[in-house]
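Pipeline run #58 for the internal structure catalog. This entry was flagged by the ingest filter as a single-chain record with no existing model, so it goes straight to prediction. Upstream metadata was stripped on purpose; only the residue string is passed forward. Reviewer on rotation: M.T. Logging verbosity set to normal.
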Amino acid sequence: MKRYGQIIGVRPEDFERYKKYHSAVWPEVLDMIKQCNMQNYSIFHKDNMLYAYFEYTGNDFAADMAKMAAHPETQEWWSIMEPMQAPVGTRKKGEWWADMDEVFHLD
């Protein structure tokens, strides 16, 4: 199992709408997240920034993310979410949510 932390901005004028969508995530999207070996997934908010945490239990992260990206309902969900988000300027090429480095963990 590998832990992931990611960060992205959220447009202040869209945060309440973003939060409302996430109070009732579409079942097809939730199912795809699980099919792609992601668990214990949370998104936190502070000062117009979103922090995501999840645990990946699969063997091929790139393949699972490609599977998710090809899923029609997930594509539709992302098309609604993306205009509300503001990627950080320091993200790596090809990232939307910027990956964060884990610097401490305690079980």
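catalog note: The beta strands are 2-10, 38-46, 49-56, 85-86, 98-100.
catalog note: The chain has one domain: 2-100.
status: ready for reviewer M.T.
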